[in-house]
Amino acid sequence: MTIESTETATPFLVTSGAWQNLPKMPESEYPGTEGFIGDVYENPQGSVMCSGFFELRNTDAPLYYEYEYDEMKVVLEGEFLLENKETGQKIVAKAKDAIFFPKGSKIYFSTPSYALAFYAGHRDSDLL
Predict the structure, then answer these.
(1) Is 119 exposed, middle or buried (0-12, 13-18, 19+ CB in 10 A)?
(2) Hey, where are the domains in the chain?
(3) How do the pLDDT tens digits run along the chain, 128 residues long?
(4) If you count Cβ atoms within 10 Å of the first and of the last residue's Cβ in the chain, which end, N or C, has fewer?
């Protein structure tokens, strides 16, 4: 017996070059830092996730970010110096390292030169 589906399969998505020319994070919210971030996919096809790229350049000031959602990152290039002053945790995440930030994490990001990561977060697009 053959069962025919009346549903159409949802196509997957591929986007090239999305890591290039990322928008700069606002100086008013992240003073003294050079962070760049942009979603590639914002809750695509009704998903609860958003994903994109985060780039950081070396500055004297670390970039502070408080997570209002769960997020995972994969470092693609360079390295991030990560610090959570509440827990005392400090770590260097290098290329090909995977990172998980649980909701509520308060993280200071810095880099000795440059770092680029891909992220996926459990959030609505308006929380970036």
Answers:
(1) buried
(2) 34-127
(3) 555 656 788 899 999 999 999 999 999 999 999 999 999 999 999 999 999 999 999 999 999 999 999 999 999 999 999 999 999 999 999 999 999 999 999 999 999 999 999 999 999 888 77
(4) N
Residue position matching structure tokens 């790229």 = 53
DSSP three-state, residue 125 = helix
Dist. CA 43–CA 9, nearest whole Å: 18
109 burial type by CB count under 10 A (0-12 exposed, 13-18 middle, 19+ buried)? buried
CATH top class, domain 34-127? mainly beta
Cβ neighbours, 10 Å, residue 37: 19
